[in-house]
Amino acid sequence: MVFAANMTWEQYAAKTDGVAIIPAGSCEQHGPHLPLSTDSIIATEISRMVAEQIDGIVLPTLNYGYRSSPYSGGGPLFPGTVDLSLNTMVELASNLLDELLGDGFRKILFLSAHFENQAPILEAMHLAQRRHGTDNQIVLANWWDPLKDSVMDEVFSDIMFPGWDLEHAAVTETSLLMHLAPELVHADKLPAKEAFAVPPYLRVPLQPSDIPSHGALADAVGATSEKGKIIADAAATSIAEICAYEFGVQVKTSVQL
């Protein structure tokens, strides 16, 4: 059992010497083929896989994230994207850290699947250090950051990698959902490539023509469940190894970053 929500308080208290993992997702449009919960599902499932490798505990997922940026998430142009403000996200993450540190955890990992969460969570981490001192370790990892080049070469052996910003609702996320939650993928609606050039600036208000009409920022054709398993396994293994390095915990499977 790794999910805190399914534990009694006694079972939870017995885990405080280990790593507490907070999955950070969002409620954000992911094209016509993926659910609004895509980021949250990915964050939750990879957190579970990491926790199983390091005997950690997974806290309830943050199902709302910081404001969707147009050129990494599509922005507010699509119904269903429900954003938190910067201050709210910082306060939320700060409150969670206060509670976990107060419960006795000294090793905490934020595992994010929403690009925009990085800045507010990092700010909350710094604030926690000021309040609680340095007798604790807090780490933030996006699931995609530690993926090896060899993994990316395998996933994109037959198609072109557009870059992480434009991978929103494209091959990697679609493949992950095909593997982790296939019942939620509308495979008949995979978005194909649409003419789209990212400008070198941001502006408000956004115009509908600023983003591909389907909401995905790159082609999702070429996504498969098999690729999703490769990505999920590699991300979980690499993040577990980060935990071993940063927190000094043991990893159940012997692998190298």
UniProtKB/TrEMBL annotation:
Family membership: Belongs to the creatininase superfamily.
InterPro entries tied to this protein: Creatininase (IPR031034), Creatininase-like_sf (IPR024087), Creatininase/forma_Hydrolase (IPR003785)
Keyword terms, alphabetized: Hydrolase, Metal-binding, Zinc
Protein name (Swiss-Prot/TrEMBL): Creatininase
Domain of life: Bacteria
Coiled-coil annotated residue ranges, if any: none
One family name in Pfam for this protein: Creatininase
Any one Gene Ontology molecular-function term assigned to this protein's record: hydrolase activity, acting on carbon-nitrogen (but not peptide) bonds, in linear amides
UniProt source species: Corynebacterium callunae DSM 20147
Gene Ontology BP annotations: creatine biosynthetic process; creatinine catabolic process; riboflavin biosynthetic process
Cofactor: Zn(2+)
Iron in keyword set: no
